[in-house]
Give the backbone structure.
Amino acid sequence: METIVDAQNLRKTYRRSDGPDIEAVKGVDLSIRRGEIFSLLGPNGAGKTTTISMISGLVSPTEGDAVIGGHSITKQPMAAKRLMGFVPQEIALYPELSARQNLLFFGRMYGLGGRKLSRRVDDLLAFLELHERRNDRIDTFSGGMKRRVNIAAGLLHKPQLIYMDEPTVGIDPQSRRRILDTVKQLRDEDGMTVLYTTHLMEEAQELSDRVGIMDHGEIIAMGTHAELTQQVGEEDRLEFTVSGGVADGAPARIQREVAGVTRVLYDAPEQAGAESVEPAAARLTVFARHGRTALPPIIQVLDSAGLVIQSVAVREPDLEAVFLALTGRELRD
Ligand SMILES: Nc1ncnc2c1ncn2[C@@H]1O[C@H](COP(=O)(O)OP(=O)(O)OP(=O)(O)O)[C@@H](O)[C@H]1O
Ligand SMILES: [Mg+2]
């Protein structure tokens, strides 16, 4: 399949005068195919925005380059930028103008105008279900509505490729649903390529043809959902919350005594002090080949260690499991 974004060895180091340099992105290779939804999934500070900013020409790479539809973003930025739309993480709209006025303004910046532009603006307002509020000032809009105006702005010049940087953070469920559906519609109906970033596994899972998992400035795994979950094998993940702290080497005993268990991760919160009487709940994650079969004997071990189980969840392999397996940390925090 044809490649529309081909980034090689992208690197960004932010120099600091009063501390060590920050290596925000450490040599990322990324190739995105025409017509696919590709998600960058990673926790806060993973380097998603920096990566997107480099391949959209907003930030110049310390090293490496990206070719967009045949044009180098560092050497032919104008030609490359014409192919792309960008929906930034931060809202960039004029609060005192209406939705329609904002879009007309951005359209003129792209060199559009006249009837063609007003028709395009009206189509996009309808597409994003903002038609009824089109003449209201932006400062009367909810966060989700503003986000949708931002998306419309990124689509004005009919780009072949659109970047959306965490477009659903902090908005209401309806707007979120509308945005996720919009992303799929753009691919299915307009054949558009979408590069989407998120720290939410569910979104990456629902939307993407392929996912790149990012952590500490690197893409640590890349592929379809099936390819990625295959990497963690057939293992289920059992998540326990227990109170009483994990005593008596319970994690080691689970691993030793329960068949099929491959790994136990134990995450206890810092205790307030030695005298703390009521220790906070600890989290225990157990990887096992047959989660449901392993459950009763694990409960027995925890029981005999004097622990109170507050919650149990059995999860089949998903992107969260891939992240956990690769980093030893959870995506959520
Ligand atoms: N302009 C900058 N100057 C200095 N450091 C920066 C700058 N922009 C980003 N960083 C640092 O680079 C790292 C990656 O940040 P980036 O914004 O790319 O992460 P992210 O994955 O988009 O995170 P989030 O999910 O919070 O948006 C962080 O450590 C961040 O503090
Ligand atoms: Mg970001």
Remarks:
- The domain at 234-316 is CATH 3.30.70.1340 (Alpha-Beta Plaits).
- Residues 48-49, 89, 165-166 surround magnesium ion (ligand 2) (CB under 6 Å).
- DSSP finds eleven helices and 14 strands in the chain.
- The longest strand covers residues 3-14.
